[in-house]
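TICKET #2291
ISSUE: user wants both folds in one file
ATTACHMENT 1:
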Amino acid sequence: MSATPANFTEEGDTLRFTGDLTLPTLGEVPRRLEHLPRAPRTVDLSGIGRIDTVGAWVVRRLERDHQVAIEGADDTARRLIEKVSEVDQPAPVRPAGAHGLAAVLDHVGAATAVSLHTLVGLLGFFGGIVLAVWQVVLNPRRFRTNAVVRQIEVVGIDALGIIGLMSFLIGIVIAQQGAVQLRQFGAEVFTVNLIGRLTMRELGVLMTAIMVAGRSGSAFAAQIGSMRLAEEVDAMRTMGLSPMQVLVLPRVIATLVAMPLLSFYAMLVALVGGGLLCWLQLGIPPVTFVARIREVVPMTDLWGGLIKAPVFGMIIAMAGCFQGMQVEGNAEEVGLRTTSAVVQSIFLVIVLDAFFAVFFTMIGWI
């Protein structure tokens, strides 16, 4: 059925509409209604064909602005006009914000409140993980071996390439920059010490944690957030399944297992990169490089890095799953929560690394 262009005529105090009051057929009607020579008292819709919400809004605006009476509307038109009238309410106006120092204090206070609220939420989420572990211990059949193995593959094995390349390049950068700076004091031989202690003690585990946070922590938040939007998490609860046991626990365990292995792998690859540059630029053969590493790098550096790794993994997995569980509303929030998961993970990892540095110094691991 072809659409008929909308039109209206003025007959005394009455506007008589004809044609279809729909978006494609309205044409110049809204603009002509704004320039009426006098306000009508009655709107006659008996001559119209189809009407949609835009046409209903045009009629509703006449009713609101001129208090006109509507006549001749069929059930569809009347129902649409009533629905449009229900949502035609004044929107609340946001009060003017503060300016200057007050605005800065306002932002700082709001950010502090959000941070404290998130910290409380993370502590509560950690309690939920502990409870889920206890329930699995009491009933081992709830442990999802396949899911854990799959997550270990995603978090660990699939990340070997990018983490290996990053660590190799970091080893080269440390060696090159260290050699340039130490050459000024005639101490190029100590480049090996610099490479060994930095990679084993700090950079190996720290850069691995940052990569895992950006790669896997964000994926956890996006996956669980998308499931929240699709109401799959609610469906699990309805079926008697615990999302903490099904979704969160496998990811946490996988990250706990993968992080120490990835960190050790990153340390070795960084040493290879640094050793290669020492061989090519400083003339230190690989055998001498390895022997020197064994002399100058204490085992406490290795243990320190490996002790930190599972703690960082726990933080990354917990932040990613927590932010995913907080998703509500729309797809835009999935992106925002994913970003928050990465930022939160890296921030907490660096804070904890500082605490570990102080702790290891206090117990004599220097």
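ATTACHMENT 2:
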Amino acid sequence: MTRVCVICEGQTEETFVNDVLVRPFAHQGVYLSAALIGKPGHKGGRVNLQRLTRDLRAILSDPAIYCTTFFDFYGLPADFPGKQDASALPTPAARAAHLLDALTQALSTHLDAQALRRFIPYVQMHEFEGLLFSAPDALARGIDQPQLAGAFHAIRDAFATPEDINDSPQTAPSKRLAALYPPYDKVFHGSIAALDIGLATIRAECPLFDGWLSTLEALGPSEA
């Protein structure tokens, strides 16, 4: 089997990995395990290069393990490698590529080549909740608010893909959800809605997310 540790920004991403991704990947011989960034007992958040480097050194010290990240671009601090320059680029794809290149370069001074080869960086554009706009009707059903389907469609239809739904304190995907449904709970509702939407639909609507999962799938089952 191939083991992949997914370092998650917070409990929302951790729950999504456990509830939505683990089983289908296990069927392909790729065993995902989610871990929050930071020390044990930490609730996630406050992503920074120092904390990520420390986690990667510990995880990748086992030569049989791969490691990836599941962070929100929106929540990264301004001094995260590549964040400021990436924010000025015109498309989510360009922003993601620039930031992940900058992160890999920054880590190359902290990790040896053997460890860096087993690191697959990923940042969700712009937030995890963007994925939920892949199917507005299912999102509305998933949070038990079917009357909001029309409002969710209006948000989704204003952008080329759910990953284009923009990042700002007012317009980030989670802010839009909370504005329409104030009781929205990221951890609880996020995973339930994702299960209602279905992984295949999310992958079909979100090309960057799909590319990340395709890279993990390509690792395939280990012969060990």
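RESOLUTION: both attachments delivered.
EXTRA DETAIL ON ATTACHMENT 2: Residues 11-26 form the longest helix (16 residues).
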